[in-house]
């Protein structure tokens, strides 16, 4: 019976079949030990010369790191073994034994070398733990929306409309149509969808042609966006803090062993519960100025400023009401002060920066048209977007959560490149 390592404790005393790869192996006289990994865990396989055929024992001693193999044997309890169990093999069937040494064996490989061999690096225990945490984050996002009656809407990758700054777009020739862009965001399309379905979200790749080399930036990254009809600013804040709290709790409960294996301090994550603290942009500027930062009202925050603000709190913190001219064209002005908009950035603690950008959207046709012209955007490309304000317009709000930044924060990673299976950074598109 083929079973996975994670399920072996259910089969103690039984004969099982395992399929995997050699993590480590050693032999001494008439006994060999093979640590087998299968993606769900690692187990020690004991191969005794007296219990198997000479050919099987010979094949076992020939195994090298990352050899693929099938093992058949009995599951036995062994407190001294990893996981408290061992396999006493009756058969070892090599599928492939590499001719060359596995390229990743040394503890001191450079990051460039590891990234160049990312297709093999992801087999390492640390990377397996990280990718399991990523899986838990994605499951939590979908589960959160499913439990709350949201509808998933898949938004396009090719778009003719600019959602954010035009300077950060990848431009492509689209047959005879002309220029199109790789999507920076699916927000505009979710706005259309929420007018049909009420509560919607997406989850998929987005692209920013931003020449940044910081530990927080990727060129291709995944984003979860949500949009809700009739939601205003405060409703939007509540949805964001509920989502982030839910994700963190889900990961602790369902991938806690992976967090611990990375050495993550889970006690810090356990404090992440709604409500989150809130400060205005204006309050944040005053705070930073007192801390000696050279920042003027009207300028956006950089990574250092975000870190300084966030380290005052144990939970993520909302920074709200940014200056109108520092944010995107579609954001709703504050009725009490039209120079700021009803928006927020959610900053993660521990120096991980912005994980969510959000706003209430402009729902008035004339005001949106005025903003498009102010930002020098081609009005004809937004005819369909303006239509949403001509037929049944309502206040609505939404946000975008950066999946990799969220993973990096939850897992305690030093660099965002480990938060995605194959990172696309400023100088890397291989493998």
UniProtKB/TrEMBL annotation:
<keyword id="KW-0067">ATP-binding</keyword>
<dbReference type="InterPro" id="IPR045864">
    <property type="entry name" value="aa-tRNA-synth_II/BPL/LPL"/>
</dbReference>
<keyword id="KW-0963">Cytoplasm</keyword>
<protein>
    <recommendedName>
        <fullName>Asparagine--tRNA ligase</fullName>
        <ecNumber>6.1.1.22</ecNumber>
    </recommendedName>
</protein>
<dbReference type="Pfam" id="PF00152">
    <property type="entry name" value="tRNA-synt_2"/>
</dbReference>
<feature type="domain" description="Aminoacyl-transfer RNA synthetases class-II family profile">
    <location>
        <begin position="133"/>
        <end position="421"/>
    </location>
</feature>
<keyword id="KW-0030">Aminoacyl-tRNA synthetase</keyword>
<dbReference type="GO" id="GO:0004816">
    <property type="term" value="F:asparagine-tRNA ligase activity"/>
</dbReference>
<keyword id="KW-0436">Ligase</keyword>
<dbReference type="InterPro" id="IPR004365">
    <property type="entry name" value="NA-bd_OB_tRNA"/>
</dbReference>
<keyword id="KW-0648">Protein biosynthesis</keyword>
<dbReference type="InterPro" id="IPR004522">
    <property type="entry name" value="Asn-tRNA-ligase"/>
</dbReference>
<comment type="subunit">
    <text>Homodimer.</text>
</comment>
<dbReference type="Pfam" id="PF01336">
    <property type="entry name" value="tRNA_anti-codon"/>
</dbReference>
<dbReference type="InterPro" id="IPR002312">
    <property type="entry name" value="Asp/Asn-tRNA-synth_IIb"/>
</dbReference>
<dbReference type="InterPro" id="IPR004364">
    <property type="entry name" value="Aa-tRNA-synt_II"/>
</dbReference>
<dbReference type="InterPro" id="IPR006195">
    <property type="entry name" value="aa-tRNA-synth_II"/>
</dbReference>
<comment type="similarity">
    <text>Belongs to the class-II aminoacyl-tRNA synthetase family.</text>
</comment>
<keyword id="KW-0547">Nucleotide-binding</keyword>
<dbReference type="InterPro" id="IPR012340">
    <property type="entry name" value="NA-bd_OB-fold"/>
</dbReference>
